[in-house]
Amino acid sequence: MSIVRPTPEQLKELASSLHIQLTTEQASQYLDLMQASFDAYDVIDGLPDEIPAVKYPRSAAARPAAKDNPLNAWACKSTVKGAAEGKLAGRTVVLKDNVALAGVPMMNGSSTLEGFVPSYDATIVTRLLDAGATILGKATCEHFCLSGGSHTSDPAPVHNPRRHGYGSGGSSSGSAALVAAGEADMAIGGDQGGSIRIPSAFCGTYGMKATHGLVPYTGVMPIEATVDHVGPITANVRDNALMLEVIAGADGLDPRQYAPEVQPYTAALDRGVRGLKIGILTEGFALGNMDKRVADKVQEAIAQLEKLGASVATVSVEEHALAGALWQPIGCEGLTMQMMHGNGMGFNWKGLYDLGLLQHHAHWREHADDLSATLKLCMFVGQYGLTRYQGRFYAKAQNIARRARAGYDKALADFDLLVMPTVPIIAQPLPAAGCPLAEYVARAFEMIGNTAPLDITGHPAMSIPCGTVDGLPVGLMLVGKHYAEATLYQAAAAFEASMDWQQH
User: Fold this and answer.
1) Which is the catalytic residue, given 147, 171, 175, 463?
2) pLDDT, the chain, mean
3) Does 297 participate in catalysis according to the annotation?
4) Is 78 one of the catalytic residues?
């Protein structure tokens, strides 16, 4: 096969886009010199791609009828039965719809990606199936995952299973909703600003954003590699720890992974909290939109941990707000470059690239007006930073992120865990169709004040349900040292065993 060679006029236009001016004669001369490079492109074009083999058969995929999808939480159903034996034998799993499942459509919440079908399974999918899980299909997620609400997904908003007409949280909206509704035992979610923990808090599930890089992101559509996380959402602590045991660890393909330290997480579940030092993060209760009822419920949960034998004291991490501010240039400029200009893949990293996703997602430019308001907002901020300041603030924010991480590390040198509300509010009513832009955006980002900072610093953070306010779940967030997920599970299991959060 041969790639298409440019004409002299096309090369002149290309050069102009690079701020270089060529005469027609110069363009012809350069074209002659470019032929050897293009010959190499021809060789590559003629070779098969290097992608993993698909190990397990799957049924045809289809979106359930409306009557069978009252929460709008299913993107599509397709059954994939894993190995006959394993840690997850007999367990059912649903995948966030930004996770590659070969032969099953993937929209990532956006109509602009409709029609894309992955050709291979994500690493975590293969690990789940090898461990005996049965995958039931894909869960709806928010538009390219750019929302903490559940009203920004195509084709329809996701409802909270505990109160219809209310948000389930995002961006892993369908994942948490289906687990909370009992339609799946476990789910995979993704987290760049809180997208595992926010829906877990709103729906009353257990959501773990593990240390950055602990779980391989290979085969999951990226937003920004330095904040990309993927992990488990479950109905109980044991399932969460078990699922993390299965999916954690290096795969040799994900550049986010730096020799991740894996532990037998389920071994920590019966240790109790006696002797654990827990720091109540002052800044975590100081958000401007903190609902006092939520704060009080979390304080009651902390008192319960103290009653169980933990040592509890307040602690301040001044960098908490700083880490939240750092998310803006890192998240907005990073996603604009990697997810949008880089067609979902970006450049300058070794690993497994999804050519089909890259090619399909590249067509967003032809349908840019159809992108969600939340994504457009982040793109406008990101592109302005890239164009006006040449990416200076992205670079500086990445440098300062080390300072933010050090602030948490300093507190965690004195405490085993930090605790705070996962989100400052309970689930809110879904905005009406056609609501003002300001309301649409506010409902998408009003809850990320405590969650986004931990995506910047990479610390493990887990949301556990700790009670209710007005009949809706409240989430308590546990934060630990890098690769100390076992300590989070230790505390979460002790709290879970001590009380029924739904009666509290």
Assistant:
1) 171
2) 98
3) no
4) no
